[in-house]
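Notes taken during the Thursday session

The instructor put the following on the board and asked us to keep it in front of us for the whole hour. The protein is 3-hydroxyisobutyrate dehydrogenase. We were told not to look anything up and to reason only from what is written here. First, the residues (354 in total):
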Amino acid sequence: MGICRVRSLLSVYSKCSSYALTCIPFQFSQRRTFSSHSQAPPLFESVGFIGLGNMGSRMANNLIKAGYKVTVQDINSNALKKFSDLGIDTKETPSEIAEVSDVIITMLPSSSHVNDVYTGPNGLLHDGNVLRPWLLIDSSTIDPQTSRKLSLTISKCMLKEKKGYRETPVMLDAPVSGGVLAAEAGTLTFMVGGPEEAYLAAKPLFLSMGKNTVYCGGAGNGSAAKICNNLAMAISMLGVSEALSLGQSLGISASTLTKVFNSSSARSWSSDTYNPVPGVMEGVPSSRNYDGGFTSKLMAKDLNLAATSAEEVGVKSPFTYQAQQIYTDLCQDGHENEDFSCVFRHYFSGKDEI
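Then, after some discussion, the predicted structure tokens were revealed:
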């Protein structure tokens, strides 16, 4: 039975893939759109998107570019107006999104926001345990426990209308890596947890917003992968920033030391792609006085998630706790809205490259 289900959804996925790739430009530099002679596959006729912040607005826009019929919702009326001005359907509450969507994607700041959107007074589960959408995808960065609880809750619901072989809805946790620039360019990486057949069926959606997808296993594993990824990213940034600051104090310019790092064993994303020293690399937050990018506030939040998860499973994580304290202090010192690479300047007292 399981093999038949996978084959059934793979068949849908194959149709969706060819459908998504037969594209022509849509409006403002869109990459793909559907053929005017074809109809959206039944499982993806309408997509609801909730959360139109720096990441979500760009992800939703790429779905629109790909030709999906998208309806959006956000508590920020200005964010909604940007889409309504383009002729995109908007709704005021998550429950209204649930009434018109086959698939719903959420991109929200924290676990509490996700819980509110799903189970709040006007949430997706407003009508009890009967849902129209067969697939719910949460791309927020939240703790694995919340992802697993919501997945279990969704699995106990029923569909208003049977979708293929499905009589019950399913949830995927699918946080992303790549930041705002990758969200804009449609080159995000999705880390996905949940039923594998649902992951395979949803791949066309993911590949309309990103270029890589990694199946991480059961419910909550996507969220776990994202927490671990951001933990490693924070520790890497701290290590590179500390080393570059030390090098400056020893008389080596940051640009010279960066060349050394990037051609030897110290090379990392923090040195060759997202260098924290102003003046070393163009097009990164450090070149814009740490404006834009991934804020220190969000990094502190993710490190809190990592620290809590480490405590719950009893894993020794000394670097986690030190990184958590550094970014907490950074936020308390007034730098919460600056990109997390500002730790070079404000914590390690590094100097700009002249």
